[in-house]
Amino acid sequence: MLKNKKLITLLCATFALVLFAVACGSDDSDDASLLEEVQDRDSVRCGVRDALAGFAVLGADGSYSGFDVEFCRVVAAGVLGDANKVEFIPLETADRFTALQSGEVDVLIRNTTWTATRDGQEGANFLFTTFYDGQGFIVPADSGITSLEGLQDATICVAQGTTTELNLNAVFSARGINFTPAFFDTNTALQEAYEGGQCESYTGDASSLATYKFTSERDGGPAQYVIPEVISKEPLGPVVADGDTAWAQAVNWSIMATVQAWEFGLNSGNINSYSGDDPNVLNFLGAIDPSIEGLSTDFAVNVVSQVGNYQQIYARTLEPLGLPMAGSANRLWTDGGLLYTPPYR
Ligand SMILES: N[C@@H](CCC(=O)N[C@@H](CS)C(=O)NCC(=O)O)C(=O)O
């Protein structure tokens, strides 16, 4: 009798354990990775913006260009061996995380700030930071406003559902600066409202304020002044859905190859003709196979020869739009910047 009881207890415990493992999916290694789906489809679906100067713009000819767009191409070059195999999917600010969760996009590369709550609550996995940003404020140059305190009792245009909105509330209330927010869903609507005088200032990622100032002054608009104070940290970079290590690693190592290449002095023009004997460079070029699932040994060569290194990408997309790299955090760690990758060995 006692023996039977013990047996039943043991059976129940085993059954409960099996149930727990199935229901909780404690290990994602049994689930098919998005990596295979992307490789079968032979195309990367990349969530971007379509009207964010310098970062992601949809041109009249139907093609996308900009810094974020180039990193979508980097992922395709790394994972599929062809930078052109990207389907760009424009997303509004409010839709970006749901598009990732529902599988509408494979990767989100769209001026999205890495924060603890987003990492924890949005089913999102933030990867290598491609652009270190911070939140700023812009005012018409003739307003005479030169500091945040000068915005006392002002109306401030801000995009809804952003870290921008949260920082604005937190910092202004802590500093006793009274303000009225005017909310918008898109940058385009926000800028129109600002230009129409509906708010004294508009706030956003400093990068988007810089490209806005540059393009609007270039196109004959009134002079703009960016208040010389940054109120937050906005690390921007690619994001994938939680729970898929293989896909996350393939995306991450492809992206980081642009920075490692730059550190090695490799670019799209010289990577195919490297004749040195630096073992670290040779490893990067494929002498060792890092065995990152989905990446061939020459993935870094594909990325850099087809899209370029980080500096090349930055120089052709952001520098011409009023965002100089000099003096920013977006430089190599060897040059006082924050761009640092783990070794390719
Ligand atoms: N980095 C911030 C802000 C990102 C964001 O979406 N900003 C808005 C306003 S600056 C934007 O770029 N919108 C682009 C658009 O919808 O046109 C975040 O992740 O919340």
Please, could you describe this protein's structure?
This protein is an alpha/beta fold. The chain has 2 domains: 34-132 and 236-335, D-Maltodextrin-Binding Protein, domain 2 (3-Layer(aba) Sandwich), CATH 3.40.190.10; 137-232, Periplasmic binding protein-like II (D-Maltodextrin-Binding Protein, domain 2, 3-Layer(aba) Sandwich), CATH 3.40.190. It is 39% helix and 17% strand. It has helices spanning 2-24, 34-41, 67-80, 96-101, 116-121, 163-174, 187-195, 206-218, 245-264, 279-287, 299-306, 310-317, and strands at 44-48, 51-52, 56-58, 64-65, 86-90, 107-108, 124-126, 131-133, 135-140, 154-159, 179-184, 201-205, 224-226, 234-236, 239-241. A 5-stranded mixed β-sheet has the order 11-10-12-9-13, sandwiched between helices. Strands 5-1-6 form a 3-stranded parallel β-sheet. A 3-stranded antiparallel β-sheet has the order 2-3-4. Strand 3 (56-58) and strand 4 form a beta hairpin. The structure holds glutathione. Glutathione binds at residues 49, 51-52, 92-93, 111-113, 159, 162-164, 186-188, 204-205, 208, 234.
Strand tally is: 15
CATH architecture of the largest domain: 3-Layer(aba) Sandwich
Going across the major beta sheet, what is the strand order? Answer: 11-10-12-9-13
CATH topology label of the largest domain = D-Maltodextrin-Binding Protein, domain 2
The percent of residues in helical segments reads 25-40%
Q: Tell me, what is the CATH class of the largest domain? A: Alpha Beta
The portion of residues forming beta strands comes to: 15-25%
Query: What ligand molecules are bound, each kind once?
Result: glutathione
- Choose one word for the global shape: globular
